[in-house]
Amino acid sequence: FFVFFLLNQDFRSASNRMINFDKTFSKPNEFSLEIFPGNMEIQKNDNVEIKIIAKGNAPNTIEFFTKNQFQSEFISQNIFLDSNKTYTLQIKNVKNSFAYFAGNKNYKSDIFKINVSTTPQITSLVLEIIPPEYSKLPKIIQNDNGNLLVLKSSKVNFNLKTSKEIINGAIIINDSLKEKLIINKKNITG
Questions:
Q1: Mean pLDDT of 38-61
Q2: Count of CB atoms situated within 10 Å of the CB of 43
Q3: Is-contact 93 114, C-beta < 8 A?
């Protein structure tokens, strides 16, 4: 009996469950999923390719769950296993950040997040137009209007505020004329 007990894995496993009757023993998952890109940051309107690599005895289809900040619950869609044991999903023109995971009724992956960042927008524009001295015209302050009609040799100072903090900026007038802006935490001037 002792030799049979030592050599038979099933018998040892069953005995362990009987001895530890107060513990829960669950069947191990038949497969696992490795998800790429995981957590990621993208620009608004970018495309994202989600690749899910199956390990073990993977089913032909799994569910892919997504939820953005405007949804109260996850929404699912089925994705299919290809010959490389990979599930692939293309998400085009992503507008909002979203959380996602994959799985089926027996297995759920970790939850990942795609953060969507937007490009900074100009929220305020003040132009100070200083005409050349020969014109004897007074300086003009122009608010929130980027259209300029100025005399030749006029000096124009820009004061911009943006929706997000930026590191650097420039005004591009044409292919050969580009002026760097001076950035500070409160205003952008140039």
A1: 91
A2: 10
A3: no
Residue 71's closest CA among 96, 53, 44, 34?
A: 96
Residue 158 has pLDDT above 70, yes or no: yes
DSSP code for 94: -
Q: Is 123 left (phi over 0), alpha (psi -120 to 50) or beta?
A: alpha
Contacts of 9 (CB under 8 A, 6+ apart): none
pTM for the full predicted model: 0.59
The neighbouring-strand residues paired with 66 are: 75, 100
* DSSP assigned state of 97: -
Percent of the chain residues past pLDDT 70, beyond the cut: 88
- Whether 104 shows a pLDDT value over 70: the answer reads yes
Candidates 70, 58, 141, 157; CA nearest to 104 is: 58
- E strand intervals along the chain: 31-36, 40-43, 48-56, 61-68, 75-80, 86-91, 98-103, 112-117, 122-130, 140-143, 155-162, 170-174, 177-180, 182-183, 188-189
Residue 175 has pLDDT above 90, yes or no: no
Spatial separation of the C-alpha atoms in residues 44 and 136, rounded to whole Å? 48
How far is the C-alpha of 159 from the C-alpha of 124, rounded, in Å? 8
Q: Indicate the range of 47-61, 113-127, 170-184 predicted with least confidence.
A: 170-184
Give φ, ψ of 11 to 5 degrees.
Answer: -65, -40
